[in-house]
Design brief:
six-stranded antiparallel beta sheet, 21% strand
Length: 404
């Protein structure tokens, strides 16, 4: 069972955890014996029950080590001061003493901590040296049970019985990183974090489409390889192309009308949840008027307070920089109309016109501003799906220019 350090200290003060565990101490605590101990068996030098008893000629008993040390300074009994030239030990001490000593039985010094052993005094020291209830310290530095750890009075302690199991599972035990080629020794509780950052951890290349797998320490080398760089540029270009609305070549119906064919509508707009700031563009083109432009299609996802625009298709015109911009009229002089063409027999096209500066932006004074103007929600995707606007996953978007 666990016991707090505060209780250990109090028991040591009471004599329950005596200093006789020390290999240099001699004598047994009177309080550890079962029943009363005859006063004649108490060493008057250490005031404990005699260990390896020695008898003076006057009949007094002492611990063998203590009386020998005493006689080196004084040749008299420490109790009665009678002359003492020699002492008797073992089988030579008085029979009555030997009988009293043979009847003694003592509890383990750690009985208050859980040990239930009852032993003869001559076996007590050997038992206490290996008692499984002896307070013990974890050898792993950083553990709360380590000898140098700061402890509170209510903290539990380890004993020898628990020590081996605790040290095998202690989160501060030292382990070897099991990643091939690493070999670093570190506390177990740091192993997971270490392996996430270890130079030998296998990681995947962060470029989408690159299937390379390498040790973390080789990551930079991988990116700096000229052959790999060319491959990455190709993959990144393909990803940019994927994020751009793929259209067939625009069909110029007449000077002021252009129709764009948008393929894979479900894949591009419905199967993926685009945020409202995601921009999906047609390829740039130059109209017959000489203006360089492209059309942006956007899936609108508005906050709750603007639900009327939720899950709707926005269409915008962007004027791009071109080679003959200095020869063109600015601000942009055309009104324009967006039309989602109905491919069914009813031909119910959806139209939206941008006819004034307030609608298209009064500050649209030149090319390359990054701004686009058009309907934020020309039609809901539910409408586009339920009618003939998407036929075989293809949609047609028309823009018609009219000089204002």
């Amino acid at each position: 069972a666990f016991c707090s350090f505060a209780s250990i200290r109090s028991r040591m003060a009471e004599g329950s955890l005596p200093e006789c565990h020390d290999k240099d101490s001699v004598g047994f605590l009177v309080s550890n014996f079962l029943g009363p101990v005859d006063d004649s068996l108490v060493c008057l030098i250490c005031h404990n029950v005699v260990e390896d008893p020695a008898e003076c000629p006057c009949g007094h008993l002492f611990c063998g080590v203590h009386i020998k040390t005493w006689l080196e300074r004084a040749r008299s009994c420490p109790s009665c001061r009678e002359p003492c030239e020699e002492i008797k030990q073992g089988q030579f001490i008085h029979l009555s003493y030997r009988r009293l000593l043979s009847e003694l039985r003592a509890k383990c010094d750690f009985h208050s901590l859980g040990c239930a052993q009852i032993l003869h005094p001559k076996d007590l020291r050997g038992h206490c040296a290996s008692c499984e209830f002896t307070p013990a310290y974890c050898r792993w530095e950083g553990c709360q049970y380590h000898a140098k750890a700061k402890r509170s009075d209510n903290m539990q302690y380890l004993n020898q019985k628990m020590l081996a199991e605790h040290e095998r599972s202690c989160e501060f035990r030292l382990v070897l990183c099991d990643l091939p080629g690493c070999g670093e020794i570190l506390p177990f509780n740091r192993q997971a974090a270490h392996q996430r950052a270890c130079r030998t951890t296998l990681i995947d290349c962060t470029i989408k489409g690159c299937n390379a797998r390498m040790a973390r320490g080789q990551f930079r080398t991988h990116f700096e390889d000229p052959t790999v760089m060319v491959h990455h540029v190709f993959l990144l270009s393909a990803e940019v192309a994927r994020l751009t609305i793929e259209c067939d070549r625009p069909e110029v119906v007449h000077d002021d009308t252009v129709v764009f064919r948008v393929t894979d509508v479900a894949k591009k707009f419905e199967s993926t949840s685009f945020r409202f700031e995601t921009k999906m563009y047609t390829l740039p083109m130059i109209g017959r008027q000489g203006y360089n432009f492209r059309v942006q299609l956007r899936k609108r996802e508005w906050p709750d307070d603007r639900k009327k625009f939720n899950d709707r298709l926005g269409v915008y015109l962007h004027i791009e920089q071109g080679e003959i911009d200095d020869l063109l009229q600015w601000p942009f002089p055309f009104h324009y109309t967006f039309t989602i063409l109905d491919q069914g027999p009813e031909k119910r096209n959806i139209e939206f016109s941008v006819t004034d500066g307030a609608t298209r932006g009064a500050d649209w004074l030149g090319p390359g501003t990054g701004k686009g103007w058009g309907p934020q929600g020309i039609a809901s995707f539910e409408t586009l799906r339920s009618r003939g606007y998407c036929n075989k996953d293809v949609m047609y978007v028309q823009i018609k220019f009219v000089r204002g």
